[in-house]
Known about the structure:
Number of helices: 11
Largest sheet: 2 strands, antiparallel
Distance between the termini: 6 Å
CATH superfamily: Formate dehydrogenase/DMSO reductase domain
Strand content: under 5%
GO cellular component, one term: plasma membrane
Low-confidence stretches: none
Structural class: mainly alpha
CATH architecture: Up-down Bundle
Shape: globular
Radius of gyration: 21 Å
Keywords: Cell inner membrane, Cell membrane, Membrane, Transmembrane, Transmembrane helix
CATH topology: Formate dehydrogenase/DMSO reductase fold
Mean pLDDT: 91
Order of helices and strands: EEHHHHHHHHHHH
Function: Probably involved in the transfer of electrons from the quinone pool to the type-c cytochromes.
Family: Belongs to the NrfD family.
Number of domains: 1
Helix content: over 70%
Organism: Pectobacterium betavasculorum
Amino acid sequence: MTPVSSSAFHFDSLVWDWPIAIYLFLVGISAGLVTLSALLRRYHPEQATADSTLMRTTLILAPCTIIFGLLILVFHLTRPWTFWKLMFHYSFTSVMSVGVMLFQVYMAALAVWLVNIFSEQAIVLQQRWLPKLTLFPKVLGWLAPMQKSLDIVMLLLAVMLGAYTGFLLSALKTYPLLNNPILPALFLFSGVSSGAAVALIAMTCRYRRNPHSDEAHFVHRVETPVVWLEIFLLFAFFIGLALGDDGKQRALVAALGGGFWAVWFWLGVVGVGLVIPLLLKSWANRQHSPYGVLAVCGMSLVGVLLLRFFILYAGQLTVV
């Protein structure tokens, strides 16, 4: 059924609301930044040093966005004080439990990976604040030869995390729009797109006089095919609904057949998030001023956030 809604953000079949959209957005940024950083270390290790803007941005935002996103998720629960049980009672048949395991492994590996990359800075901090912890430099010495392996592990974990947010929603079988196998790939690529936008904003803010550094060129080379893949996946997502059963077709009509969320999608997700950035990208890349890059990346980032809101809310309009 398609419920009668009192407003676009409050209707009978709504279970997950805006904090979940923010959570999905933040997790995507973390996964996207780590994916880009791991690729930079794999293909351009000479650029992926501790002085790299991309690596520094990943150092700060990759763990912070995950932590903030999880805090939003925990406090959004009906009984947040019971969340700790998920951290110790695993079930491979529960998507949420598998996600908790993935988050734990991801955060542990991320900490080791980042400390190893920023080992010199970490040792300075250790000698200043924990001088008696003499084992710390030795551990970093043991980890140093494993850096390439850690890069691969982090790339795999970041891809899994980016896709997991889509699996989390696609497991909701009573919502035909969300119960879609393309959703994990769509969330993965849009997450990488958001990570690229954040990285380019950081690079532009750091090097205002030269917003087109070698690092920025690398991010652009990754970002361009990712955006086109995102567009293709969006197209395939809706084609799959159109060719699906009656429930999926009704979900498609409810989402794009008119009304608030159809306008949200076409003007926000497609217009602001995809079309305008693609049209302005070549112009922004020719400018020596940072404002063009900031505007394009800002719109791309907003577009990804709007996509999360659209998928979450429009996906819950129709129940079977």
